[in-house]
Amino acid sequence: MDKFYLADPQDITRAGLMYVCAQMEGAEPVPVADKAGLVECLKRHDSAVVVLDFTLFDINDADELLVLGERFPKVRWILFSVDLSTDLVRRVAVCPQFSVLLKESSLAEIRECLACAAAGRRYICQRMTEQLLAPVQSLVEECRLTPTETDILKDIALGLTTREIAAKRFSSFHTVNTHRKNIFRKLGVNTVHEATKYALRAGLIDPAEYCI
Question: In terms of Cα–Cα distance, which of 127, 45, 41, 121 is closest to 80?
Answer without folding.
Answer: 127
